[in-house]
Design goal:
Elements: E1 7-18, E2 24-32, E3 36-43, E4 51-59, E5 65-74, H1 75-78, H2 86-98, E6 113-118, E7 132-142, E8 145-158
Antiparallel strand pairs: 1-8, 2-3, 3-6, 4-5, 4-7, 7-8
């Protein structure tokens, strides 16, 4: 049995900007109870190729920023690859456990991709994670065209 952690991941905000209006039939997300992200997405045509540029910054209490990662990934290969970066494996596992449908390309037109109660499980992380604010940005591209920007912010909060 995995021991409980004495911290929580809290989501403050989620910001979504679909940039190709003719591609997305629907794209909605919301944060529930500061812990869970729920989304649904329907695209009007198949997406055969998808890339993401993503960053994760940790903001320490002294207002210093530390870039945890900044990478460019092929989304179509992301879910079928074991990653050296443990954080990517945690995210892939959590997404796989909370989304309906298959996480592979092509992304199918007129299918309602639904993310239910996505969250970061504290037990997937080391015993100690520094108390901090975090923010992440993702830019999604298909055929080198920017189609979506997604950002989130949150914090690591220790239980009292």
């Amino acid at each position: 049995m995995t021991p409980q952690r004495n911290f929580l991941f809290i989501f403050n905000d989620l910001d979504i900007h679909p940039l190709t209006k003719d591609l997305f039939e629907e794209f909605k997300c919301k944060v529930t109870n500061s812990r869970y992200i729920n989304c649904n997405m329907i695209v009007r045509r198949n997406i055969e190729q998808l890339e993401v540029e993503t960053t994760l910054d940790m903001l320490k209490p002294n207002n210093r920023s530390m870039r945890f990662y900044q990478v460019h990934l092929d989304v179509c290969q992301f879910f079928s690859t074991l990653h050296k970066n443990r954080m990517f494996n945690v995210v892939a596992k959590s997404l796989s456990n909370t989304i309906n449908g298959s996480l592979k390309c092509p992304i199918v037109a007129n299918f309602n991709y639904t993310l239910n109660n996505y969250h970061l499980k504290e037990t997937d992380f080391p015993n100690y994670v520094p108390e901090c604010q975090f923010q992440t940005w993702m830019k999604f591209y298909t055929n080198k065209k920017l189609i979506l920007r997604l950002g989130s912010s949150g914090r690591v909060q220790y239980k009292k």
